[in-house]
Design a protein that fits this description.
With 205 residues, this protein is α+β, with helices and mostly antiparallel strands. Helix content is 23%, strand content 26%. The longest helix has 14 residues, at 137-150. Residues 45-203 form the N-acetyltransferase domain.
Length: 205
Amino acid sequence: MGLPGPRLRHHPRDRAPAPRRVARARLVSGFAEYQPGVARQTVDVQVRPGELRDLDACAELIVSRTHGSAAERRERLVADLADPDKYISVAVVGDEVVGYGGVIRHELKPDDPPTTAPTGYYLIGLIVSPDWRRHGIGELLMRDRIRWTAERADAVYSFVNQANGAILDLNKRFRFTEVTRDFIFPGAPLKPGTCVLLRADLTDQ
């Protein structure tokens, strides 16, 4: 069964027209307001592996959600770029990076608590610039990261805040199913009961 795909035109060599200005989404619990009935707008967008030149913009996108230092975040992204077990996916309109998503490999250690998330590849940090939401960019970043992971593993994991309805729905469209809500992930400050661990089988991808 094939993955769903947004109806977008892809002309990476063309300069994209100026975006149609849309109102910034009201934030709910730190996430964009979930509006499943809002129609997508067509835009020319390229999704590709991240490069060194993209990392300043990626860092700014990330700290717009997590706060902290963009310079420190960029240093971490530089290390990620060189790590074969990590992947950076970017969405570009014209010369502007408008979306970011990552993949990391987590390895369960013998002394980890029993509720620690299992070994595997994890989708992390899907972020789209507020001015470019409702264009299906998140779905394209999702597809690209799953493509990369499917070349290396039979399954992929994700953990999502239960308040983030848009990302939960996106994961369901890519056939992610719930594993548990009682888990921890090393290095991630997850509040108990706020996130759900999801898994998607990639053997048919």
